[in-house]
Amino acid sequence: MPDTKVQETLGGAERAMKRDVRLLFFCQALMNASVVGQVAMGALVGYSLASDKALATLPLALQMVATMAASIPAGIIFARLGRRVGFLMGAAGSFCGALTFALGIWMGDFWVYTLGALPAGIGFGIAQHYRFAAAEVASPAYRPRAISLVMAGGVLAAIFGPELVKHSKDLFAPFLFLGTYLALAVLPILCAVLLTQVRLPPPPPRPKVAVPLARILRRPAFLAAAGTAAMGYGVMNLLMTSTPLEMMACGFGVGASATVIQAHAVAMFAPGFFTGRLIARFGARQIITAGIVLNALCVAVAVDGESFGHFVAALVLLGLGWNFMFTGATTMLGESHAPEERVKAQTANDFIVFGTVACTALGSGAIHAGAGWVPLNLLVLPALAFALGLTLFLRPAVARPA
């Protein structure tokens, strides 16, 4: 009888853990849907409102700057007040960002529209920690799968975000996309409701002696994880941001570019249903290497032609490569810190990653306008080579569990 009770208790704990992971999956999906929608239309709105067309991707760039900047205060909030309070604040930021974007479109003011990128970026930055929350609620054996499953919430976002753009962009004509941003403002409200049902861990214990951040930053495992994630995310963002602009230059409409972004987003997140198993079987570094190869194939397809099929194939390869690189790097980050260091290590990691993404978002429009599509694609090859070097040659002396 005692053994039966123990088994029932363990089974109940496992069911509760998987329930929490599923809820985090839907929270991630709702928060990502607004970002996917913004990617599909942000550069086009910026292009239509900006007098200087080289600034078309400035709102997306500022959104990534805000995402980077959010990592530090988010880390403090998570450490002191817990995950729930931090995630609710992120949902509030996304809500305010969507309404400010809508106001900028209604006023026809590029700078008001750009201002919406700041709260939207803060919300997106905080939402990046859902994958870390999944690792914290999961058992050690289930952790890689929990991370990849929560990231797979982007599949729903990939399907829903562009479809929302297509069907709501003309609701308040002639204010193109005004209805879309008003609809996106509802998503963080739904996310906040789900968060009330998730059992999240308490703030991590404070170490008796604080570990200096510089010591974490010097660890080979941290450098490999953060550097690889930064290169993977930066390469993806550089090419993805300019794709709607290049398609517009080739004569494709909003619907076509939204479809390409949708296929790309599905490719980004759908592997989450099995990436965790692949990492558990082959190791994070092997999966990251596969992602680098997929990104290189994306470049080869992109420079080969500019038909609709070329754009779809290139962006699908880009999405798959991002998933393998980013999920592998997130798993590898766990080798770089002890439990009491997790918030500090995660905050530093996201600051580096989204600082890189911000630079690529701003540079994407300028490089595309000044040099063109082919040079923009070829520019990512050195970054991929750098990521490969980090993956192969920076290894931890002793693995440390996250």
Question: If you had to describe this structure to a student in words, what would you say it looks like?
Answer:
By secondary structure, the protein is mainly alpha-helical. It has a single domain (2-200, 213-393), classed as Growth Hormone, Chain: A (Up-down Bundle). Helices cover 80% and strands 0% of the residues. It has 19 helices and no strands. The protein has helices spanning 2-49, 58-81, 83-107, 110-115, 117-127, 130-137, 143-151, 154-168, 178-184, 187-195, 213-217, 220-249, 254-269, 272-282, 284-304, 308-333, 342-370, 373-378, 380-393. Helix 12 (220-249) runs parallel beside helix 15 (284-304). It is globular and about 55 Å long.
Keywords:
single chain; 402 residues; mainly alpha; Growth Hormone, Chain: A; globular; disordered C terminus; transmembrane helix; MFS; membrane; MFS_trans_sf; MFS transporter
Helix and strand topology:
Elements lengths: L1 H48 L8 H24 L1 H25 L2 H6 L1 H11 L2 H8 L5 H9 L2 H15 L9 H7 L2 H9 L17 H5 L2 H30 L4 H16 L2 H11 L1 H21 L3 H26 L8 H29 L2 H6 L1 H14 L9
Helix pairs in contact: 1-3, 1-6, 1-7, 1-8, 1-10, 1-12, 1-13, 2-3, 2-5, 2-17, 3-5, 3-9, 3-10, 6-7, 7-14, 8-9, 8-13, 12-13, 12-15, 12-16, 12-17, 12-19, 13-16, 14-15, 14-16, 15-16, 15-19
